[in-house]
Amino acid sequence: MSDDANAPYESAVLGKDGLDALIRVLAEEGRTVIGPTVRDGAVVLAPLESGDQLPYGWGVELEAGRYRLRPREDGAAFAHSAGPNSWKTFLHPQRERQWTAERGADGGMTVTTEAPDAPAYAFLGVRPCDLRAIAVQDRVLASGRYREGGYQERRRGAFLIVAECTEPGATCFCVSMGSGPGAQGGFDLALTEVVDDEGHRFLVRAGSEEGARVLARLPRRPADAATREEAERAVAAARERMGRAMPPVDLRALMGASTEAARWDDVAARCLTCGNCTMVCPTCFCTTTEDVTDLTGEHAERWSRWDSCFDLDFSYLHGGPVRSSARSRYRQWLTHKLGTWHDQFGTSGCVGCGRCVVWCPVGIDITEEAAALQKEREEREEREARAEHEETEP
Ligand code: SF4
Ligand code: SF4
Question: Which of 107, 168, 377, 383 is the most buried (most CB within 10 A)?
């Protein structure tokens, strides 16, 4: 958590009903509010119309390749870790039409560029790891040489309400990626949920003028010392309860030193190259384009849609795919995510949300693979040092 004593904006306490008021105020201001709700046996992110759609009383049990809802007695709203979709579903949608073309009476084509669909979103319940993921996608899609206009527009208008993490899952490792469980900035409002003998409430910090303005419209009371202390304690406790951790080494250097590791064969024997890990990952951003025409040939459309580096076609050049084996495709994904992403975008491509671990149908675990690569590297370096020593021995 940030130091409230230095925060330029107001902090306050919202009662349990405060979230309903927050959703109402944001909707009145013309925003499309997206937040967590229970649907199809999971906590998903979807449009919300009222606070009672939030997943009060639901937690989740996570493991590699496993996700289950679990009822909670404390009635908490944000006691669940990352679900199957992320905010990229809204900021960087799965499918988007880019243009349509119609053939005119003279036989010529008129091409109409599609204006981006850019509602004024309010994202309620953004985890700090996902807040970092949005910052990573900002870097990729909204800055630098190649920008994505629709993303930029949606992002510019988005109001971000963080929910600090007090209940990490067994597959979470944000602490070792430096992306949670508390939020330090980059939000409009930050909530920390507190459920104790004093009741169910939320410590709220405004992080922007817009956040402070919205907070001023809500039924609230001044932040008291007991709520602040309990909120800080809950976030600090979450830090100690991470289910997993990345090996504490320079991951970029590890990836660079592991290009010929035997572990790639091991993981390739398990990987189905289904691409689930890339679809659920909140930072993966690759798209491809598809052109479609109707049967008359009078109407054509171009769509962009998410693509995955696990698809054979993804690296297809003339004559065939560059990465034809599962080994080379998994290696590409992991070394990009943890290594060359730094070279391209100045950050890691992984924020430690654990989604790829949970939604991998065969339970491949990015932290386990990185640890195995590190172990192999240490053994290799030990062997090389021993061999060098033996060579120089008189
Ligand atoms: S690591 Fe898992 S989720 Fe990713 S492509 Fe392989 S089998 Fe699918
Ligand atoms: S690589 Fe896995 S753990 Fe890392 S951000 Fe993507 S889905 Fe989350």
Answer: 168
Task: Look at residues 311, 292, 294 and name the one whose alpha carbon lies nearest to residue 303.
Answer: 292
Which pLDDT score is estimated for 388?
87
Closest listed ligand to the CA of 357: 2
Residue of the CA atom closest to atom 2 of ligand 2? 356
C-beta 218 within 6 A of ligand 2 = no
C-alpha 273 to ligand 1 mean position (Å) = 5
Instruction: Output the pTM of the full model.
Output: 0.95
| The total number of structural domains that make up the chain | 2
- C-beta 385 within 6 A of ligand 1: no
Instruction: Please give the pLDDT value at position 2.
Output: 39
Nearest-CA residue for atom 6 of ligand 2: 281
For ligand 1, pick from 277, 281, 330 the residue to mutate: most ligand atoms within 8 Å of CB.
Answer: 277
Choose the final residue of a domain: 206, 240, 274. Answer: 240
Q: State the burial class of residue 239 (Cβ atoms within 10 Å of its Cβ: 0-12, 13-18, 19+).
A: middle
Report the C-alpha gap between 104 and 123 in whole angstroms: 43
CB atoms within 10 A of CB 105: 5
Q: Splitting the chain (394 residues) into consecutive groups of 10 residues, what average pLDDT does each group show?
A: 56 95 98 98 98 97 97 96 96 97 93 96 98 97 92 97 97 98 96 96 97 97 97 98 97 98 98 98 97 94 97 92 96 98 96 98 98 98 92 76
In a domain, 384, yes or no: yes
Report the separation in Å between the CA atom of 269 and the middle of ligand 2, taken as the mean of its atom positions: 21
With respect to residue 101, please indicate whether it lies within any of the assigned structural domains: no
**Which amino acid is present at 304?**
S
Range of the domain at 9: 4-96+106-240
* Nearest-angstrom CA–CA distance, 87 and 93: 9
Q: How far is CA 358 from CA 85, 169, 234, in A?
A: 12, 10, 24
Query: What own/partner pairs with CB < 8 Å and gap ≥ 24 does 268-271 have?
Result: 268/325, 268/326, 268/327, 268/330, 270/362, 270/364, 271/310, 271/326, 271/329, 271/330, 271/362, 271/364
- Of the candidates 248, 276, 247, 275, the one whose C-alpha atom is nearest the C-alpha of residue 263 is 247
Contact 40, 254 (CB under 8 A): no
